[in-house]
């Protein structure tokens, strides 16, 4: 099963109440979409781990700007 | 060989004590109201208990132990082993277990010793106490476990201050020929020793003038090297990497199945970590009790405190198979499966 970036966006929207559904796009920059802080980072890391069984760390997030950047990391580390 | 079983020892009773002073994260003025709400939602801690100045971990453990001895009608003179597990002991020296031995009126022939462990401490303490009882032929023992982490965290550090609460607990252990096996799996990885750390005040970095200087670590995070530093992402990733395989390893060794376990008691780390573990293990919510919302992360005390505060009526009247899973500082992690047969359990005590 290939991963789908739109599923990933839906899962992010489920996790963060402050995001209006439909507003987040693959090229959206996290820091511009909402108050990005260390707690939000942890929530995202937790979701990626429980939904995809993929571990991302602080460095990965520091290097990622957009939703697509994080999705690419998940794709390269994902095992079915 | 970190997976083993101990026969012939049973848990006879439990007690826990928390300070009276309640602190709410909704009143945490260091961060905005919006951030307070986000903190409560994500880490799952609404309120915590803090000691008053001058109170020590042993005070709460002493009160819990006295209530337990009374409830079980045990004479202090019968106790042959006292183990105190904490990372916030009363003094740098001497060891706190000896002071407790004296205050509780235990005989001088009782073995007393301290173990320095935090989050994983309760399960390690149970393993050491029961194994010592089994091999030394000890009939009755007290395991006293607690921490006062509120004193170590800096108010201006939003990554630690809203998380921790204080508590002290007591567990009574007894030799019983036909008691069911307790199963343990204990592991650790010292390469992660910096993930949760108080850098100064020990012998490596003795206290100096610099130890009292606040530094800005990140926005909203100011602390001195005498305060606890916690690398949230590192601890999160470690917990999600190690805990589930350790639980599965223990169950494979003991031949037990998760579906037959009545309650899974996680160290109360934070809601995000614990809920992620629960989802990974596909355990229903009703099998995973939380005391985190009321008492915060109480370090080594979190598992016995959760049993006393959330399951008291159930442990009093039922035979249960429990799985205990504790993980954190060290890094160090441990799993145990233990059967409780209508144990004695004091009401939650306050000091």
Descriptive report:
The complex is a heterodimer of chains A (80) and B (351). With 80 residues, chain A is mainly alpha-helical. Chain A has a single domain, classed as Non-ribosomal Peptide Synthetase Peptidyl Carrier Protein, Chain A (Orthogonal Bundle). The termini of chain A are close together. Chain A has helices at residues 5-15, 30-33, 38-52, 58-63, 67-77. With 351 residues, chain B is α/β, with parallel strands linked by helices. Chain B has a single domain, classed as Thiolase/Chalcone synthase (Peroxisomal Thiolase, Chain A, domain 1). Chain B has eight helices and 18 strands. Chain B has helices at 33-43, 57-72, 96-103, 121-136, 232-254, 271-281, 292-295, 302-317, and strands spanning 3-6, 9-18, 22-24, 47-49, 81-85, 111-115, 140-148, 166-175, 182-188, 196-197, 215-218, 221-223, 229-230, 263-266, 319-328, 332-341, 344-345, 349-350. In chain B, the strands form five sheets. In chain B, strands 2, 5, 6, 7, 8, 17 and 18 form a seven-stranded mixed β-sheet that branches. A five-stranded mixed β-sheet of chain B has the order 1-9-16-15-14. A two-stranded antiparallel sheet of chain B has the order 3-4. In chain B, helix 5 (232-254) runs parallel beside helix 6 (271-281). Chain B is globular, with a radius of gyration of 19 Å. Chain B starts with a strand and ends with a strand. The A-B interface holds A 35, 37-39, 41-43, 45-46, 49-50, 55, 57-58 and B 34-35, 38-39, 42-43, 159, 218-219, 232-234, 236-237, 240-241, 272-273, 275-276, 279-280.
